Amino acid sequence: MFLASAEPVDPRQLPAPFRPRSLPRRMVATARHAWVLHRRALKLAMAGVVVLAAGVGLYEARDHISTGLASATDLVQGRFASAGFGINAIEISGQRLTRERDIFALLTMGNGNSTLTYDVDKARMRLEWLQAVESASVRKVYPDRLEVAIVEREPVARWRVAGVTYLVDVQGRRIGTTDGAFGELPLVIGSGAADDAQVMIRALAQHPDLKAGIAALSRISDRRWDLIFQTGLRVQLPEQGVAQALVQLAQYQRDYRLLDRDVTVIDLRVPGLVALEPGEDAAAQIEAERKAAGKKRS
Q: pTM of the predicted model, to two decimals?
């Protein structure tokens, strides 16, 4: 219903009362508007501030916390030990290459002195750091004993390089040094010899007559092998076709006893060809025969 005297008016032109707000009320209103519009971001920011403050507090108190934990651990360990659960005996089996003092040092490294709190998994992992150890198991026998079983890598050869002789496993990994023990194992010499030793050892195993008199296998430029016999004889093998060269050498040994003759070098590096370097006596005899043959012709 409209009044007869009513006229259209732009509401923007109407006067509005001015009600000034106090500063606290304006701040509250602004905060409410910000919370409604940016609630998620503000919650994340507040959580970040809390985490940061907690981190700073823990960092500042780290020394006190560490001291407290250490004191508590020592107290618990001492009480367990006094109650009859202290570690009084360690039984070790399976070690032959590994020194017992190294095993004991790793077993007692920060693991406590009570069977109730001793960490066998950590002790096992430490033992498997040792070069000669393939695997290890550590078992607690209550109330006061540890049983340790060591499985070591199996040495298959001795490797001499830079004046040191190492024991190596089937993969060529060093598992310790030797000062004359394990003399029954093949001796390989030279840089890179350990990596390829097993292949050569298996090839020689097919020829017992050749293997018996060998003193060492020498790796030449990490490409091929020389067989060094106890008599000083050196047999030079080719880079490729080693198996065929060994078959040929074994045949010459059966037919002509070539390895037993007065020669210093047998060169098999060229397939199908055998070159010999005679020893001093054989060389002198050959030279004398040449001179005699020359006199007859004259």
A: 0.63
